[in-house]
């Protein structure tokens, strides 16, 4: 029964629960960022580049000329889908920036909390004895 109790204590610790919540929220945040990149950021960039859909950019490795990435995929042709890679890199940069801003905000609050002056340490027994001697010498 000790193993089950030990596992229960581990699984219900605050850190494990916090990690589980972070993974769920991170997954949802990833979907939001993907939508932001695919639906908001990439269309204007594609328009500026001449109606380019980044996800359709590819290089066929078999030397054939395919009309689209879908056509190359249907033909089971090896391709370098560098457009998808560009889009994924942009998503990563946005997620990294958002996490950086969150961590920066958290650290700002921590610094304010730490800035409060700490109470002076309690005097050691030697210091107390020296204070008593000093006080006795003042009275004489």
TrEMBL record:
GO molecular function list: mechanosensitive monoatomic ion channel activity
PROSITE patterns named among the record's database cross-references: MSCL
Main location: membrane
Domain of life: Bacteria
InterPro entries per record: Mechanosensitive_channel_CS (IPR019823), MS_channel (IPR001185), MSC/AndL (IPR037673), MscL_channel (IPR036019)
UniProt topology in membrane: Multi-pass membrane protein
Any single GO CC term annotated in Swiss-Prot or TrEMBL for this entry: plasma membrane
Keywords: Cell membrane, Ion channel, Ion transport, Membrane, Transmembrane, Transmembrane helix, Transport
Residue stretches spanning the membrane: 12-33, 79-103
Pfam families to which the protein is assigned, alphabetical: MscL
UniProt-annotated location(s): Cell membrane
Family note: Belongs to the MscL family.
Entry-linked HAMAP family: MscL
Described purpose of this protein according to its UniProt entry: Channel that opens in response to stretch forces in the membrane lipid bilayer. May participate in the regulation of osmotic pressure changes within the cell.
Subunit: Homopentamer.
Protein name in UniProt: Large-conductance mechanosensitive channel
Organism (species): Anseongella ginsenosidimutans
UniProt lineage: Bacteria, Pseudomonadati, Bacteroidota, Sphingobacteriia, Sphingobacteriales
Gene name of the record: mscL
